[in-house]
């Protein structure tokens, strides 16, 4: 909803109202979804379309995911 529905993007608060969540929780879910999509097993089809299958592409995605997980205070695979 944030990117697909409108220009300018729908705000997290507006999305939260529609889903019965706070704007902050909506933002958190968005961030978690992006981390999930960076994982090669979840992003294979999209990466195929974009031709982003190099080792460097996967290492960058993993580094970003690990940085986010450290910031969040969680562990990989949780």
Intertermini distance: 26 Å
Low-confidence stretches: none
Structural class: mainly alpha
Shape summary? flat
Write down how many β-strands occur, each being a DSSP E stretch of 2 or more residues: 0
Order of helices and strands: HHHH
Radius of gyration: 15 Å
* Helical run tally: 4
Quaternary form: single chain
Largest sheet: none
Strand content: under 5%
Number of domains: 1
- What is the overall pLDDT average? 79
Give the % helix.
55-70%
Polypeptide structure, described:
The chain is mostly helical and 78 residues long. It has one domain (12-72). It is built from four helices and no strands. The chain has helices at 12-19, 23-38, 40-50, 55-72. Helix 1 (12-19) crosses helix 2 (23-38). The chain is flat and about 40 Å long. The relative contact order is 0.09. The mean pLDDT is 79.
Relevant terms:
flat; 78 residues; 4 helices; mainly alpha; single chain
């Amino acid at each position: 909803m944030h990117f697909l529905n409108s220009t300018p993007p729908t705000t997290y608060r507006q999305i939260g109202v529609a889903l019965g969540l706070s704007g902050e929780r909506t933002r958190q879910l968005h961030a978690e979804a992006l981390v999930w999509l960076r994982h090669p097993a979840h992003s294979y089809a999209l990466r195929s379309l974009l031709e982003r299958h190099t080792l460097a592409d996967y290492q960058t995605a993993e580094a970003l995911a690990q940085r986010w997980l450290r910031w969040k205070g969680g562990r990989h695979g949780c």
